[in-house]
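4.2 Preliminary Data

To establish feasibility before requesting continued support, the project team ran the inverse folding procedure on a target of 203 residues. The structure was first converted into the token representation described in Section 3, and no sequence information of any kind was made available to the design step. The complete token record follows.
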């Protein structure tokens, strides 16, 4: 079943298929130009929810300077995460096309990898202190696995090269967010990143 004209009104249906692990959803959106904006919207909303979870953690834990957490994690952190997702997609596209010589269209990757970023919204649940790490692991692991399927749908590269390109792109995404967590630290706990990336686990 193909999605023709997968606009914003179809986001719930697309996400519902992802929840059911219907990975053919990537085949339906990869060539649909109208799915580009909704896919980017998924990244924006998921990033905002990750940052919101960090701020709600500060509220629940009655931490001081909640406004600072709101600025650093929810607002600036979300913006940085979105920018680094773009870098992730770009790295994947460049590796597949220029290093591995595979077909890798940036627009196709934006649509499929944007939709695959949806599990990052689970980072909202880092507000539950005792379960912050498990929920963060589910969010990050789910996102990585789905982006692998998303890339495979958007390129003719073999699975091993898809996995390698995705791993390198994700590593850049995660490492830079980790570095940002140490920039302008908030009370030695975290910095300019949303969700679990906000926290400096070395303090």
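Position-by-position output of the design step:
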């Amino acid at each position: 079943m193909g999605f023709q004209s997968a606009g914003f009104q179809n986001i719930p249906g697309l996400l519902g298929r992802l929840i059911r692990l219907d990975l053919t959803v990537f085949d339906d959106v990869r060539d649909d130009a109208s799915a580009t904006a909704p896919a980017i919207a998924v990244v924006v909303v998921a990033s905002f929810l990750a940052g919101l979870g960090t701020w709600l953690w500060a509220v629940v834990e009655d931490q001081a300077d909640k406004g600072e957490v709101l600025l650093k994690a929810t607002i600036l952190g979300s913006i940085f995460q979105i920018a680094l997702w773009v870098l992730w997609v770009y790295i994947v596209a460049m590796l597949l096309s220029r290093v591995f010589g595979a077909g890798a269209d940036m627009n196709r990757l934006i649509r499929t990898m944007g939709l695959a970023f949806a599990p990052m919204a689970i980072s909202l649940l880092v507000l539950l202190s005792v379960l912050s790490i498990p929920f963060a692991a589910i969010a990050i692991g789910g996102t990585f696995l789905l982006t692998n399927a998303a890339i495979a749908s958007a390129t003719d590269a073999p699975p091993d090269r898809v996995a390698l390109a995705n791993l390198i792109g994700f590593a850049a995404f995660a490492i830079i967010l980790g570095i940002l967590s140490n920039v302008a630290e908030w009370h030695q706990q975290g910095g300019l990143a949303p969700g679990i990336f906000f926290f400096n686990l070395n303090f």
